[in-house]
Design a protein that fits this description.
Blueprint: E1 11-12, E2 28-29, H1 44-48, H2 62-65, H3 95-98, E3 99-101, E4 107-108, E5 112-119, E6 125-132, H4 138-151, E7 160-165, E8 169-175, H5 182-189, H6 194-213, E9 216-217, E10 226-228, E11 238-240, E12 247-248, E13 256-259, H7 265-269, H8 280-295, H9 308-317, H10 332-341, H11 352-357, H12 359-362, H13 378-389, E14 395-398
Antiparallel strand pairs: 1-2, 3-5, 4-5, 5-6, 6-8, 7-8, 9-12, 10-11, 13-14
Helix pairs in contact: 5-13, 6-8, 8-10
Region (Disordered): 1-45
Biased composition (Basic and acidic residues): 13-26
InterPro entries: Kinase-like_dom_sf, Prot_kinase_dom, Protein_kinase_ATP_BS, Ser/Thr_kinase_AS
Length: 399
């Protein structure tokens, strides 16, 4: 992607941990937030309306975390900064004073390490992600913090609980999601049905609709950023993670970013004065994810044999079909929804409200969604796709 800056997803799949127990084979995410200073807070619209930030990281979430009247840190979302007395007379606090961390990390990445932890006060299990500042982009961290503080809580969005900061690293305390990534979970459990896809896509769309209602565009929806809360299929809830590329939708967005295999055509092909895009880029990403869920291969690379440039050319042309035998038994309603999501013209592309009102989601208009497995091999097809694509399609951001 030219001079794109590849960066690892903020989602950390802790199944990379050395432990092989089901308890440790979890997926957790780490995002970011910040706290108060003596300076005038920078507002969240200011933070999210710029693609590059020039304020100090310790100012970034001040507006979201300081109460309007007494300027105390909001108790529901405590944020402490290591080595700085920013807790208004409550004294300096360290992450080890607040959370007990396991000795062995759950997983390691290029720029971060994740530990399972427990809050000493509440006994809540958490994921604590330590990010080396020298190895990552502060702007992405600030953006993710600001987005998560703006949305606060939603049942289908990973919750930020705490943030600690030092000159060398940022520690993010997040809700611990132990169900793994959605695609990997489905691949592991065996053949799944079209109705299973309805349930997961509906939850995903509800979360994205909530983001859009709050003026936030995710811009990097992909399988690795969709987690499940628990290994228990009866209780598992879809959770969106990684808000490093999120942006406030106040003006036309122009930064080319995301993960190209799931990016809308206008995000990867635009240039010039008229270039720009809006929240409909998230609709395209969900359309791509839905297509893959239903058949086990990518709409713009069905055989898995196209080069990156060939695949990008098909994305730009919105060239896909339902000709493969894998689509024979699927409902016409599912195909209709995809046709309204994978649309070249964003004006004609479905919004989240349109998606959630579609008969495939609502079950109205006599739509029958099959409950039998999509195919005997759908789970292995999905696993093969996931394995092939995971390290091929990385996040990028071009100025």
């Amino acid at each position: 992607m030219g001079n794109a800056k590849s960066s690892a997803s903020q989602c950390v799949d802790v199944r990379e941990a050395k432990s092989t127990t089901a308890h440790d084979k979890a997926a957790s995410t780490a995002c970011t937030s910040t706290s108060s200073t003596e300076k005038t807070p920078t507002s969240l619209p200011d933070l999210l309306s710029n693609d590059s930030f020039d304020v100090e990281f310790t100012q970034a979430a001040n507006a979201a975390l300081v109460a309007d009247d007494d300027k105390n840190v909001v108790d529901a979302s405590p944020v402490h900064v290591v080595g700085h007395d920013l807790t208004r007379g409550r004294g300096r606090r360290r992450v080890d004073d607040e959370y007990e961390l396991e000795r062995t990390p759950l997983g390691r990445g290029h720029y971060a390490t994740v530990w399972r932890g427990r809050c000493r006060k509440t006994n809540q299990d958490v994921a604590v992600k330590k990010i080396k500042r020298v190895l990552t982009d502060d702007a992405r961290l600030k953006s993710e913090v600001a987005a998560l503080q703006r949305i606060r809580t939603h049942p289908n969005i990973v919750t930020l609980l705490d943030v600690f900061e030092s000159p060398s690293e940022v520690l993010l305390v997040m809700e611990l999601c132990t169900g793994g990534e959605l695609f990997e979970r489905l691949a592991a459990k065996g053949p799944y049905s079209e109705m299973d896809c309805v349930r997961h896509v509906k939850s995903l769309a509800e979360a994205v609709a909530y983001l859009h209602e709050n003026g936030i565009v995710h811009r990097d929806l992909k399988p690795e950023n969709i987690l499940l809360s628990t290994p228990d299929d009866n209780d598992a809830v879809v959770k969106i993670a990684d808000f490093g590329l999120a942006k406030l939708n106040t003006t036309t967005m122009k930064t080319k970013c995301g993960t190209w295999g799931y990016s809308a055509p206008e995000m990867i092909s635009g240039s010039g004065v008229s270039f720009g895009y809006d929240a409909k880029v998230d609709s395209w990403s969900i359309g791509t994810i839905l297509y893959i869920l239903l058949c086990g291969f990518h709409p713009f690379d069905p055989m898995g044999s196209r080069s990156d440039n060939e695949m990008i050319a098909h994305i730009k042309a919105c060239s896909f079909t339902f000709d493969d035998p894998a689509w024979v038994g699927l409902s016409g309603s599912a195909k209709d929804l995809i046709r309204h999501l994978l649309v070249l013209d964003p004006v004609k592309r479905y919004s989240m409200a349109d998606l959630l009102a579609h008969p495939w989601i609502t079950g109205r208009e006599g739509v029958h969604v099959p409950i039998q497995p999509l195919s005997p091999t759908i789970h292995t097809d999905l696993a093969r796709y996931q394995q092939r694509s995971k390290h091929r399609m990385l996040s990028y951001e071009e100025d």
